[in-house]
Model the fold of this input.
Amino acid sequence: MSYDTTDVLDLETREAIDIDRTKGDFSFPERNKFDAGRGLSGKTIDYISDVKNDPGWVREFRHKALQVFLEKPLPIHWASKDLENIDFDVLRYYLSDGEQPKRSWADVPPDVLETFERLGVPQQERAFLAGVEAQFDSEAAYSNVKEELTKQGVIFCNSTEGLKEHEEIFRPWFGKVIPTGDNKFSALNSAVFSGGSFIYIPKGVKLKQPLQAYFRINSENFGQFERTLIIADEGAELMYMEGCTAPKFETATLHSAVVELVALKGAKIQYVTVQNWSSNVFNLVTKRGLAMEDAEVRWIDCNIGSRLTMKYPGVVMKGRRARGEVISIALANTGQHQDTGAKMIHAADETTSNIVSKSISVGKGRATYRGQVFIPKHLKGCKNNTECDALLINSNSRTDTYPAITVKGNRHATQHEASVSQVSAEMLFYMQQRGLNQAQAMSLAVNGFINDLVREFPMEYSVELKRLIDLEMEGSVG
Done:
């Protein structure tokens, strides 16, 4: 389904804005000791493996993934043809200064430290976080977790440390939730992955404070390919939050991550993302969780910025009474396409899934919801709820909805609701009569549209989300 609004604002309001990204739009000179060069080949894989001193099984894993990537076509038959503008021969796949992750901010190189200070990461760690990992281009610059959590057996490190120092926990689940051949970009990540988080929460441990990772792209023509694996053992609980930024370059930048979550019996994982990529970034991410008996996986996802985002967090509910949920917000401005959604695969009796998606299209921005729900015939007592709501700001805004809900058998309950609305001139006029200017009125309307979902975000992230929306609206109405 496609919708276009009728004109509700004057000509000036149709002009999208170039957002003030002063918080994230800066970069420092490159200081790389290791550079895999441009283009992707077997030599690139060997260079990365040599630098990272990969075990033999990882090197073999990478080379097999490269072949899968080369054989798979771009998915332009159903996705955006803008993917054809990614030049894989120009991109750089590994950049690193050769430093090991620091456990103290005082030991982080000054320019890298300044980057994360300007983004507020050290302050957030002191205020409310149980641990932080900060990645700069291909590798983590800082990684630390509170001492009391380490004593409880909590592991929080980068993926390289995880596969080497905790192989007995890491390897059995690595690449099992998202196989290499899942899609072209999961194969690409599998070939050149570097950085990302490895987290293990022991049985019965329930973290009261969240863990956070922050991914920063500093270099031009760069591809960032972090790989995250989170395992919550039986009865364990955690919240993990990630933030993402990059400076605005004239050339394309690629971010292609893979995130695998494993919630064992009775465990709960909540994964929160607020991305604020610059408008030159192709953000092509594969995220999926596995929920065992009585376990819960929740994705809370906010997508602002980027040139093209393709992201569909999913949950495979493999155990009885498992629960999966995706709550997402996407905002597309002119020159941006937010192609987001969710996948829910019911694989056990009495499983429950919930999808709530809200999108806002500004200027000539395009937002797409793409969802998949599957309940096979042999199961019983499964439930799904899907809600897709879109808000169009301008006459040239666009939204598309592609829900695919497959329910076999007659012992399940499913419901789907979709709506498209627009900000009316009357609403804006009413708010302006009470002292608000046009931008403030528009921002209030947008925040009201997503307010019920913003409450799901941690306080610090909900404040940041409101600030980003205010920036998007500033100047977008004349």
